[in-house]
């Protein structure tokens, strides 16, 4: 007798009755997802979480009584569970969503909108994210990262390339926030909607001792600077050596993504031993083949360990491909990266 797989049980929290109805309709298209409740504001949601014990909560940001960020902070402090932010694509909305993911939200998605085809595409992405969130590992909000002190002149002339997806926002806050001002240039691909990467770069910049920029075509690499690939329509590559230029190129998705971690890693692999590759939490396998190319070329390659990943997908794929030299916990990763950069 075949046992039916358990459904992912979802609680929708949004102050708009129309949006609650739309999210319910889109999620219910998947027989593996069950919407167990819908709440118009956080106080009602709190009681539903207690009584319904959902696997995943989708959470709006601007609501009456208590805003979504305050509610999320309480969830992650008192009862950590997978939360997916469902945000409007406004400047205020994107900044708040980045803060939500820093606090521990698993992922973010823009509220479905547009014509029927666009709404259907948004729904497919929402269902994918919700099911991935149900398999994720969440913990209580971590303490701010401790800066890593490095003696001047001890870091080699290298380029650090980093790839992340689901759970990567929180991980990048932890890692980038700990890097010293004289850190070698860092190139980052984080899977997220195009509307969010500019706000993410700004928030990272405020929290770090290094400068964090949303990458632009033709930028020259500088020490003490992190370059975040813009979300959406272009891949990010490195041209030249450790003081080379950033190239943003249009193209098809690679490993299911654009920008793709694999594309970045393959371009950095040309530096050989003058590169360090880092693969962080995320679903899927983007980055595994590119990191293998880096390791085969002589680069140092590091992976985030299973215990501290929100989703142990990308690091596991890279480890199984023989691309990862050694795994580290999230708290140990900044020192591991700098150790790989030392002479």
Would you give an account of this structure?
The structure is a single chain. The protein is α/β, with parallel strands linked by helices. The protein has 2 domains: 8-134, Rossmann fold (3-Layer(aba) Sandwich); 159-341, Methylesterase CheB, C-terminal domain (Rossmann fold, 3-Layer(aba) Sandwich). 35% of the residues lie in helices and 20% in strands. The protein contains 11 helices and 14 strands. The chain has helices spanning 17-27, 42-52, 68-78, 91-103, 116-134, 168-176, 194-207, 261-268, 288-296, 314-320, 333-341; strands at 8-13, 33-39, 56-59, 83-87, 107-110, 159-164, 186-190, 211-214, 225-228, 234-239, 245-250, 275-279, 300-304, 326-328. It has a 7-stranded parallel sheet, sandwiched between helices. Strands 2-1-3-4-5 form a 5-stranded parallel sheet, with helices on both faces. Strands 10-11 form a two-stranded antiparallel ribbon. The longest helix has 19 residues, at 116-134. The chain is globular and about 55 Å long. The mean pLDDT is 92.
Q: What can be said about this structure in brief?
A:
The chain has 343 residues and is of the alpha/beta class.
List keywords for this structure.
single chain, 343 residues, alpha/beta, Rossmann fold, 2 domains, seven-stranded parallel β-sheet, five-stranded parallel β-sheet, 11 helices, 20% strand, globular
């Amino acid at each position: 007798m075949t046992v039916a797989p358990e459904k992912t049980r979802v609680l929708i929290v949004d102050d708009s009755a129309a949006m609650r109805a739309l999210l319910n309709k889109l999620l219910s298209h998947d027989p593996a997802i069950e919407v167990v409740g819908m709440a118009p504001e956080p106080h009602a949601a709190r009681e539903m979480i207690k009584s319904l014990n959902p696997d995943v909560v989708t959470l709006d940001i601007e609501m009456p009584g208590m805003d979504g960020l305050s509610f999320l902070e309480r969830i992650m402090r008192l009862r950590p569970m997978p939360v997916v932010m469902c945000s409007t694509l406004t400047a205020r909305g994107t900044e708040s969503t980045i803060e939500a993911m820093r606090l521990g939200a698993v992922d973010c998605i823009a509220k479905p909108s547009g014509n029927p085809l666009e709404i259907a595409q948004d729904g497919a992405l929402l269902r994918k994210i919700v099911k991935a969130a149900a398999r994720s590992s969440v913990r209580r909000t971590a303490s701010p990262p401790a800066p890593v002190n490095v003696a001047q002149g001890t870091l080699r002339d290298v380029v650090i390339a980093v790839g992340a997806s689901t759970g990567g926002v929180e991980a990048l806050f932890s890692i980038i926030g700990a890097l010293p001002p004289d850190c070698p240039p860092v190139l980052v691909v984080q899977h997220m909607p195009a509307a969010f990467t500019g706000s993410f770069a700004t928030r990272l910049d405020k929290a770090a001792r290094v400068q964090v920029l949303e990458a632009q075509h033709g930028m020259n690499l500088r020490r003490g600077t992190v370059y975040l690939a813009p979300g959406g329509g272009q891949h990010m590559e490195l041209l030249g050596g450790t003081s080379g230029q950033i190239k943003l190129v249009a193209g098809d998705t690679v490993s299911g993504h654009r920008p793709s971690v694999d594309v970045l890693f393959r371009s950095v692999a040309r530096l050989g031993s003058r590169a360090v590759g880092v693969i962080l939490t995320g679903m899927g396998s983007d980055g595994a083949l590119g990191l293998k190319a880096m390791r085969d070329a002589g680069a140092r390659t590091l992976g985030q360990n299973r215990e501290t990943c929100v989703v142990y997908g990308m690091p596991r794929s890279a480890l199984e491909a023989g691309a990862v030299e050694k795994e580290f916990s999230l708290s140990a990763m900044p020192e591991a990266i700098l150790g790989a950069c030392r002479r």
